[in-house]
Amino acid sequence: MRTRVEPYRWSILDLAIAMANKKIYLDDAFQSYHRWQLDNNQRYMKSFINGKAPTPIYVADIEKCMQSVITKYDKHHPDVAFYQDKLDKGYTYITIDGNNRSRCITDFFLGYFNGAFPLIIGDYELPSESLRNPNILSVTNDSRLFADIDVSKQVDLQNMKIIVNVVETGTREDLAELFDAINTGMVLNAQEKRNCKMYDFADLVRDCVKKYEKKLTKIYSEYEFNRRYVDEFVVDLAVICARGLNGIGPASREKAYGDNTPEEKSFSRADKIIGQIADLMQFRKDGDKLFVCSKKTNTNVLDLAILLAYMNANKIVYTDKEKFFDEFSDLQTKRIGSTKTLWRKLVTDKKSPDYGKPTGTDDRTYAGIQRSNQKSFVVLRQNELIASLSDFSDGLIISRDKTRNFTRDVAFLLSLWRKQDGKCAASGRVINCKDILNGQIIEVDHKYPWSKGGKTVEENAALLYKHENRSKSASIVDFKPQSVEIEDSSPVS
């Protein structure tokens, strides 16, 4: 639908009153919550009062937009219900662009949101009919707050006008596209553009960030929240929970936004992990940079999330939050500092006599594979993280699955896996580290059958693929590892 926009001149006091009376709804599909600090507010008010902040505010008239949708489509269009809900709650407008500015003005006059703030000391030039006789507001130490300014100057300030462009036709998607167009000059990042998409998944991501925002400020700055880099991290977790470690990046994030996507259907799993991370980060000590995130990296937090996702899927829990966080931090620090080579670039030319051998040009430690989120590197990181579960203190990591004859404790299973060189005791096939605790894939059985007097002790235990265990019946396991085909690039064993 073509949007119709009409410009109006509002007094800034009228704008402030509308905001304070909750007549303007913040639709966070395309707007962010107020995150301006004091200096942002002061600089904006200085520019505005001096006539050097011409950028208009954009709002949508809810009633008129709703009627436009009914006219073009019908009353059953989903946006009609959305608009009607806002009208029922007393809103008149939806803010499209300018939320920070609107809240700044409201706080200056009324102190409604975060309290009144002082102006920067100096001279301000208020509107005047005469250029020769300017209307000067002198702000001193004693008159920095609006309440302390001379009454006549207060009136002049209240009557200052601001351009408010009112959108009178359009769906929610039209409003989002308008926001995108308005902000083209500031270059919206990829996640900000995804956030404008009218899907239920977008709502889930925003709600999740809002729910845990206070705790996540331990690792994310105001800037990361404001530019929705935290939202992007939540999307990555949703992708991992829905699709596994199949590459984390722009393409997978775009796929998450749609109708009934796997990410939407399994979002509760990602929400749980974010909640766990938020809780654990309360134990992060000031000055510890291990988990500090930026728009370019959140590698260590992602590693923690990958481990938690695996633990949650396999019903593995930690018995002490603080101890788990401290020990994970120590183990992660050791991994990052390790000089052990985990991955080598191999010769891929099958005609070369060196095919399958390391090129010597790209050997990577754990810190090296952290530099990329391509699937092979993320899988390697996951394997290292899973294997480290046996390095935690006794009793800190436990498995809830106690239904089998042999214990399903993490340390026990990992010990068997290492003793068997990571291979099935029956076939010699490689057992992926991430599958060890999956009872649908891997089972623990007796080397010498229990039916023949074999004892249920570690020395008589063996890890086997489930189908191999079923096929061997009561036969004795003869462990004979088989060779594995070399891939183009592979982890170092």
Commentary on this structure:
It is a single chain. The chain is built from 20 helices and 14 strands. It is α+β, with helices and mostly antiparallel strands. Strands 1-7-3-4-2 form a five-stranded mixed sheet. Strand 5 (122-126) and strand 6 form a beta hairpin. The radius of gyration is 30 Å and the shape is elongated. The protein starts with a strand and ends with a strand. Residues 480-490 have low confidence and may be disordered.
Percent helix, as a range, is 40-55%
The oligomeric status of these chains comes to single chain
Number of strands: 14
- Class inferred from helices and paired strands: alpha+beta
Low-confidence stretches: 480-490
The chain-level mean pLDDT equals 87
- Lateral strand order in the biggest sheet: 1-7-3-4-2
Distance between the termini: 59 Å
- Strand % is 5-15%
How many helical elements?
Answer: 20
Q: Provide the gyration radius in Å.
A: 30 Å
Biggest sheet, open or closed, and with what strands and sense? 5 strands, mixed
Domain count, please report it: 3
Shape: elongated
